[in-house]
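User: Hey, quick favor. My workstation is busy. Could you predict this chain's structure for me?
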Amino acid sequence: MKLSINKAIKNNFKFFLLAYTLLYFCLINLKIFEDYWDEKIFWEHRAGNWTKKLTNQELLQLKMYKLNKEWVLHLVDEGYTILDMGDFNNMGFSAFYAMEKMVIFK
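Assistant: No problem, here it is.
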């Protein structure tokens, strides 16, 4: 009888350690997730409209768009070989990528 009680205690203790470890990691992950959302909300509030998604018409007016076009034109003028990998992330339409394709493959 003594041997079976010790075995049961040993198995219960192993189960307790496993359950405690899993719960501990879950709590750590929840804490990290909670901190992430607090930071995200803080920076979204501070950024105002800096993080808003721009329309394609708004993108065409950006200095970054114009500089990207100049850079692509420079690559073409210098005779660089450009490999088009396509939209391998399936992110949908990109005004930048469409412009680059028009310039490179005209």
